[in-house]
Amino acid sequence: MTLQDQRCGECRRLLFKIEPGALSGALSIKCPRCKAHNTLRPQSPSPERQERDGTEGQSAQIIRDRPPATRARLPRRAQGEPL
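Predicted structure:
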């Protein structure tokens, strides 16, 4: 059986290789390069579904958990100060 590459959903770094159908529960892994949290969950195979790159659906799906975006804080406007 052939191994499938599992890559980070954010930076596409190779995280690990896995046999199709080998995952029975959820797996969470943090990318060492970009620090994104990737969650891998098994899904039921559906032969009619095709992935974006044209390949058939895989036996697992990576779901990204991004940290909340940080915004630069703007100073508060004083009462009566013009806009």
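Summary: The beta strands are 4-7, 14-18, 27-30, 37-42, 60-65.
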